């Protein structure tokens, strides 16, 4: 039996890699994929905690996270495609129109 | 035995996550992400969440990644991250930030090592358990999800419509 803390450590590592990807990369598509990585790390933690507590609620929450991630990806990619049509370039450094 | 399986799957997951961040070509990144999602589905199976493992493969590795690859194909990638980086000093903060986040969780895990509670009853991760919970305790969030998906669909149609 694998201790649940191993799963949590793996989840933390995946989340940290996702954060690094969001900060380092300049292509908004790769940034989105890094966000997916972070969502999956959180999902893994949910399932591990649910396994530990013997409750299926964690799995139901992961189900909702998946639905929200699907909606987020669809809207985000549509926004990226719309920006690309406008600018013909794809780098987050150009996207400062709504900057404070 | 299961520890060995966990170690192999965890190594695959970590390696593919690093590949996503390191490789310049977004298509390679997308394929690495597919590997990562598959290995996480395998971990779900090890944790007894069979329904989620299937949903992970179908929804994430199937639907969402196909969407990503479509977008990459449409957007002619590969030329965006060449050339000098105008914000290099800012981006160098990424590794310390990620490292501190990771250390925080590890420290929390180590110091919160209390006495383990009694062995929990094995929970079934099958469709029946999830479905029963989804349509009783979580009925309202479930319906809200349908509204969210509808709103996302309408929004995407509006965004993707070609203006005259």
Structural notes for this entry:
- The complex is a heterodimer of chains A (100) and B (164).
- By secondary structure, chain A is mainly alpha-helical.
- Helices cover 78% and strands 0% of the residues of chain A.
- Chain A is built from three helices and no strands.
- Chain A has helices at residues 4-24, 28-53, 57-87.
- In chain A, helix 1 (4-24) runs antiparallel to helix 2 (28-53).
- The model of chain A has no long low-confidence stretch (mean pLDDT 87).
- Chain B is mostly helical.
- In chain B, 73% of the residues lie in helices and 0% in strands.
- Chain B has seven helices and no strands.
- Chain B is globular, with a radius of gyration of 21 Å.
- Chains A and B meet through helix 1, helix 2 and helix 3 of A and helix 1, helix 2, helix 3, helix 5 and helix 6 of B.
Name the features.
heterodimer, A: about 100 residues, mainly alpha, elongated, B: about 160 residues, 7 helices
SS-based class of chain B: mainly alpha
Gross morphology of chain A: elongated
- Quote the average pLDDT of chain B: 85
User: What is the count of helical runs of chain B?
Assistant: 7
The shape of chain B is: globular
**Largest protein interface, residues of each chain:** A-B, 69 and 79 residues
First CA to last CA of chain B: what distance? 62 Å
- String of helices and strands of chain B: HHHHHHH
- Helicity range of chain A: over 70%
Which range best describes the helical content of chain B: under 10%, 10-25%, 25-40%, 40-55%, 55-70% or over 70%? over 70%
List the helices and strands and how they pair.
The complex is a heterodimer of chains A (100) and B (164).
Chain A: H1 4-24, H2 28-53, H3 57-87
Chain B: H1 2-22, H2 26-46, H3 50-74, H4 88-91, H5 94-111, H6 127-134, H7 139-160
Short summary:
Helices cover 78% and strands 0% of the residues of chain A. Chain A is an all-alpha fold and 100 residues long. The mean pLDDT of chain B is 85.
